[in-house]
Write a structure and sequence with these properties.
Blueprint lengths: L11 H33 L4 H50 L2 H7 L1 H25 L2 H16 L1 H48 L1 H6 L3 H27 L1 H26 L4 H42 L25 E8 L9 E8 L4 E6 L5 H7 L8 E6 L2 E2 L5 H6 L1 E4 L8 E2 H5 L8 H10 L3 H5 L8 E2 L8 H14 L4 E5 L7 H14 L4 E5 L3 H4 L4 E6 L2 E6 L1 H7 L1 H10 L2 H4 L1
Parallel strand pairs: 3-10, 3-11, 6-9, 9-10
Antiparallel strand pairs: 1-2, 1-4, 4-5, 7-8, 11-12
Helix pairs in contact: 1-2, 1-5, 1-10, 2-4, 4-6, 4-10, 5-6, 5-10, 6-8, 6-9, 6-10, 9-10, 14-16
Length: about 575
Amino acid sequence: MRKLVKYLKNYKKESIIGPLFKLLEACFELVVPLIMANIIDIGIKNRDLTYILKMGSILVLFGVLGLACSLTAQYFAAKAAVGFGTELRHELFRHIGELSYTEIDKAGNSTLITRMTSDINQAQSGVNLVLRLFLRSPFIVVGALIMAFTISVKVSVIFVIAVPLLSVVIYGIMMITIPLYKKVQKGLDRVLLTTRENLEGIRVVRAFRTQGREKEEFANESDLLMKLQVLVGRISALLNPITYVIVNMAIIFIVWFGGKEVYAGNLTQGEVIALVNYMSQILLALVALSNLIITFTKALASAGRINEIFEMKPSIQNENTGNIEQDIESGDVPKVEFRHVSFVYEGDKSPVLSEINVTVKKGETVGLIGGTGSGKSTFVHLLPRFYDATEGEILVDGTNVKNYDLEELRKKFGLVPQKAVLFHGTIRENMRYGKEDAKDEEIWQALRIAQAEDVVKSKQHELEEMISEGGKNFSGGQRQRLTIARALVRNPEILILDDSASALDFATDARLRKAIRENTENMTVFIVSQRATSIMQADKIIVLDAGRIVGIGTHKELLKDCSVYKEICYSQLSKEEVE
């Protein structure tokens, strides 16, 4: 938790004022038993109504002052805690945004969501209670112990025995529950993962009529979480009854031995009542402290999980933040070059790509084709440094991609991923995602090239039409065309179409490729596809098989020299179409 304290640095004033006002409230509270003792020993004993009213008024005044201090402390503690949670959430979100695909794949989306929401909320609640009670409760315990000693050293021995005993109980329960709370949060991760997969795949679940199996799986995960929560709840619930038993036993002994001291003339009746009140104050303080311990234990477990994400360092570092001057107008420098590139995903043994050597000139259209798992998507993901090559080097405009500032490098690219992703908002907002100042004329031009103009014009509000979450109010083909248009609005130097026309019919796909070829002069285009027809007209076709290049050339050249390409073509098309 101490690693997260830095997120309170902008709330130092609130973090100091809150506990101080709680201590001031505690001071008023500690004086109350002494005033009560005087009321009993002087006012009631002498039947002095004036004295009773005078001291009663002081009690009321202290009560009002204590309430004002408490409200002030609550306000500043809450302000500091909410500010802490907000800054931590922003920083964690920023940190996750900097992680490479490798770290995000390793952590998992559901875990990251849980840590961004539930874990930060737990940590925020912990900070709130710590600011309010961490100083107040121990201060009350120690203060009551000292005040008891000023009344009677002999009877105060009971306090000396009870307080350490209570501390041992609280500490012991805390040590047992911390690891259990970590398991509870992991269980919450699994429930969230099951829920998210079920909701995202609801159509598949219903199509295969597996609702029963999904319910059973969710019930199993939920029951396991419930059992963990019940177990940790039962252990935590022992805290209050055990502390009550110890404190009430101490009160019994105080009354017992205090009565003897009163009979012997060493104590007054009011002082015995004061001692009982101090023990009651200790009880209430420890009950509050026990709640703090439970919440803080949860916060500690959550803080550990948050720190695990912060400790993940992005494997792709921004190694160069300066601008790189380039001159490729002569055409001698390739736009993209792979030199002996190999790549292995973290945790895998076999390479996805092996000994890749490719040179692509500016303005060329390159097709990538191969069987499933041949490494096509990995090939194009290496270009904008979503992953770093395990061996070899990748050059863009003659410069190693590792020498670029990441933002400058990725400005060169327009990527259309396999899964079309649209964000909630208007079509115009989505089109401007890569270029915030894009004019409507640029958007409509990109839509025309992407064969999506009719899609937008068919909507009532055209560019102002709202896109629902994930673009669910558009068909798969429409989403793909809109994402292609979004990439074209940016007018990138290198356009990557990663199997992004798979949902389009052949006629629309043909029109799309023709429009891109005619309207993207000097733009280098990579087309990843399973369809031979999608890449037949490319200037250069790269054929991948099991992570290796088995053929590079034009369609006609590969038909003669590459058996893998020939097999793909004839499996999809007739002899006349191939030739």
